[in-house]
Protein 1
Amino acid sequence: MTDAAPRLHALVEQLLGVPLPVRVRAWDGSQAGPPDAPTLVVRNRRALRRLLFKPGELGLARAWVAGDLGIEGDLYHALDLLSGLVWERGDDARGLAQALRDPQFRAAALGLLRMAGLPLPPAPPREEVRRTRHHHTRHTDRRAISHHYDVGNDFYEIVLGPSMVYSCAYWPAPGATLEQAQHDKLELVCRKLALKPDQRLLDVGCGWGSMAVHAAREHGVRVVGITLSQEQAAYARKRVADAGLTDRIEIRVQDYRDVTDGPYDAISSIGMAEHVGAEKYLEYASGLYDLLKPGGLLLNHQIARRPERDESAYELDGFIDAYVFPDGELAPLGTTVTQLERAGFEVRDVESLREHYALTLRRWVARLDDDWQRAVRLSGPGRARVWRLYMAACAVAFERNRIGVNQVLAVRAPESGDSGMPLRSRTWN
């Protein structure tokens, strides 16, 4: 058989009701579709089996991670073209998951499979995390964090560079270096928190210690950084020692729910709240409120999704949830602000950094591509493919305004109502 690609291309277009914007090359060498478009490479029939038995995003993810599917050409362009079919289903197209469940498609695709005598679907790639629901207990949170962050510090050094900051940078211009942009982000957080020498800062989800080191070195504060990742903690402690800041920084492997040594003057939570979960978010916000002294400031840096018209119909992202951030949950910005206010905080400032995260992710992907073979040796080919796809897809999602990222500055205002904030609070600009 040397006509698999034309048959697949025509079938998908017929079922979706719109032209397929990418070229397809199948396992038999056949090709179909726009000649100048990025090419979706279907390397074997196993890719079809994955899609047939798990229609939609998760089936695509399994095929990608296993190496059954690939993309040749501009990865971002391909994801941008496909996003309308996979993520942004409109009135003029049924969407991939719905099309893959269509009896006509399944009958035709199964016909292709029968010619090869292929059996039932293969097992999911070993990189996939299996779970039943989002519990967000101390045990499940620790396991989820370990899955994502204990890939290996050497792997993260490839992706993140010397700054080892795994959150949105703050770009002075698109051509700036990643190191400068990450330095500027850490300084932005410190300035928003109005840090002063010898104040106590709690850094929730401290990662590899970048914020703690910057705040102690540049602003003279005393920092407690907490993480659930043993590998991160070991790396952060070494950085603290190398910087000569062991008298000012303590790194703990500790759940945020177990911190009891307040009050703190300020709290930074940068890229951590996405792991908290909707059911636990008020507990998280209330716990941080209780750890602050009156007049203390919280800087909550968090990715947000767009609200659904019917929030009860919201479903978690199949690929991200299964391969990247198990038990991670994104909430709309309005929900986050409401929960912070319910906990007692007064929200004083909200700043969107959406475009900044798109730039950051593109730099991370470039670094991964530049040292791809070493990354594969360190993490395995499946895990490296997971990180490449998730970072590139997220860059496109930020660019298309499917998701955003926001810094929310909030204060634990005293009972007197005097927040202590200056009349013109944006002194950090």
Protein 2
Amino acid sequence: MPINIPNELPAKDILESEKIFAIEDASAERQHIRPLRIVILNLMPKKIETETQILRLISKSPLQVDIDFMKTESHESKNTSKDHLVKFYTNFAELADNYYDGMIITGAPVELMEFEEVDYWDELCKIMEWSKTHVMSTMHICWGAQAGLYYHYGIQKETLPEKLFGIFPQELVDEYDFLTNGFDEIHYTPHSRHTKIDEKALAAEKRLVVLSRSEKTGSNIIVTKGYRQIFVMGHFEYGVDTLAQEYFRDVKAGKPIHIPENYFPDDDPKQRPILKWRSHANLLYRNWLNYVYQVTPFEIEKIKDMELYHGNKDQHGYARAFKKD
């Protein structure tokens, strides 16, 4: 099934060139099914690039998915045209009455700042609180994952001695977990960050489960037992050349940066990188969308009356949903 995207979104031409079926609003309205509703809070500076990367993964599901793009009012983007933001993005306040099967909160280049110093932190906290009653499952990415772990569980981030930068093998902790079903025992994930989470605090938080990790990166995929919140420390959505662009940008700017690990063949920046995380990226997003499709009520506004019974799963691995008493 296709993804349903806003009319004239720039990502549409790129996706179609990759043989990905995307339809616009008018065509989707003629289909008599309830598609999944996903909202993307895009905090990355290059919004069009991030849109394309995430939509590429969402499109791999057999389900039809409607997409809304959310932005904060408390921050003005300097790297994306105002016309694009006005045309395709909606402020949180205007979406606050909506209910969604899933939400994605992206990373942001603010990790060396204290959370409370980020100009949109207060608004982001309101959005994360809202997601608990208006979204069935929220996926947080990189800094978005660090922010979510801090807001929901008080888990702090720590500054690394040097940037964690490259493609790192991750060990699967539970090969039978629904979200990582189909993963190899070792999978690769791009990382590009200056901070890490407090692993001791994470281990002490019994409401969270680590699905994959490595000694180099620490925990990589973290979830609540009912998948209402998912925290991905790396960037499964990255394209093959994303780290190369970051590397050459920093080299040109004279910033301290090392060659991304396990990325360029023979660590030679003149050679084209090898894309070795795509299949697991597709699996992660397909499993996630399949999960929210299984558990979200058809009348989506009933999310507000539901809670996931943590710690119980049926024989197929689905977390069961129950109405509150």
Protein 3
Amino acid sequence: MTFGAMEAAQAQGLVAGRDLLFSGINTSAEAMQAVVDGRLAALSGGHFLCGAWALVLLHDHHRGLDFMSEGLELQRPMFMLFDAPQARRFLQRFGDGQALALDFRPYSKALNPGLKRYPFQLEGLLKAGSRSE
């Protein structure tokens, strides 16, 4: 929707990031590049990881670890606000659109008994090692 609004503005002779400010919720390469280019003033994303975090919890539960130690409600920030440097990192790590083999083992308490709390944050994936293809 944001890119449609940007196209409509451009058709009126307006420039995104200069005449109008746009924001969105997305982690596509196109959206990240728009942040880097200054066409998107604000971009949030990361909700796609909700399923991955749920699978880590199921993995641990299957191995006998109850996530009750996290409390009755598991609340973790799913979204991250991207600035240009973070968008560049995201593009570097995930930007080619290829299916990536992400290693979720560091997030499992069953595989990492020293973890006190699940480290579910998108920022951690951006800082993780190089991509594996």
